[in-house]
Amino acid sequence: MTHNILFEPYQLNQNMTLKNRIVMAPMNRSMADDNFIPTSAMADYYARRADTGLIITESLMISTTAQGYPNTPAIYSPEQVEGWKAVTEKVHRNGGKIFAQIWHTGRVSHPIYLNGEKPLAPSAVPLKGRVPRTADLQYETPRAMTSEEIKKIISDFTHAAANAKKAGFDGVEIHAANGYLLDQFLHWDTNRRTDQWGGTPENMSRILFEVIRKVKKEIGHVGVRLSPTAYLHLDHDERDIQVSDYVLKHLNEYGLAYVHTGMFEDNYQPHLNATVTQYIKRLYKGTVIACGGYSAETGGKALIDGDADLVAIGRPLIANPDYVIKVRQQLPLVSYDVEMLNQLF
Ligand SMILES: Cc1cc2nc3c(=O)[nH]c(=O)nc-3n(C[C@H](O)[C@H](O)[C@H](O)COP(=O)(O)O)c2cc1C
């Protein structure tokens, strides 16, 4: 049975061992209260999934400029830190481990979330389309950030990481995937800058490496999520691979907990001649988490084949809070349905 490998413990580094190789993928549920504080229902939701080897929380806003959806939780205020303490305590009591995913949406936002201000982005390039969960709003042209504003964002990520430590998280995941702010810097479609933050792979990834360096000083265990393929919220450019090659090679120098694939379906990509996870594994020598459409069978196979070290499961874990037990005992799984997003269970 290929999926037995999923139940072997995994030593993430010398200070942390995961009890199995199933990771809960970050999934925003937009169920925080109106001050962006996690509720007790959210604490119960995460605690019910504490038998996964590692939980990665939904994306947490690092500042008031980070929002792009209603009621997404945050980690910039002391009250939010208190709220997350209740979550981490419950998860730990149930024997789990939990990292906070820290996030800024960049241009994937709208003035309705920003007190009427324009969203911040590397360049003034609008995202086309309608803002989800609004009546009929279109995305607008964002404002290109000044160098000072970029430095402020780096310090907001750092502050969020310090808060994550205070809240009892075991580590943080820097969200540099799925077309949000840090990913916008890593792609030519959204980064048209000609200063030290754009124009070359080194400049385009400068903000990410600054964030990693500073965040690492606040909390020891730091993972990074990446989407080398522009599949969401931005368009592909042939030069993108030069940026992701550069980033992945240099990530080897930072003593990270892991690099995590940010994809909805981790399919074969002709331009990479591999799946995104296989491509990451080719260049990044530390722990790699596969994600995107995996079942216990295909996830187990990816581990056996050496494509990844851990596998993150998203939607099946929404549908099955008892996913780990069901897979272990080979019980049938409930199928995921978007209607399930209306409540936490
Ligand atoms: C409801 C929902 C919310 C998500 N929110 C996040 C998020 O907050 N951060 C993130 O990096 N990815 C997010 N994702 C992507 C998942 O982490 C994952 O990549 C995706 O669901 C594919 O994995 P799966 O096929 O196992 O579900 C979300 C996905 C879903 C379905």
Automatic annotation (TrEMBL):
SUPFAM superfamilies according to UniProt: FMN-linked oxidoreductases
InterPro entries from the UniProt entry: Aldolase_TIM, OxRdtase_FMN_N, Oye-like
Cofactor: FMN
Domain NADH:flavin oxidoreductase/NADH oxidase N-terminal as annotated: residue spans: 6-333
Molecular function in Gene Ontology: FMN binding; oxidoreductase activity, acting on the CH-CH group of donors, NAD or NADP as acceptor
GO CC aspect terms: cytosol
Annotated PANTHER family: NADH OXIDOREDUCTASE-RELATED (PTHR22893), OXIDOREDUCTASE-RELATED (PTHR22893:SF55)
Name of this chain's protein: Alkene reductase
Organism this protein belongs to: Photobacterium frigidiphilum
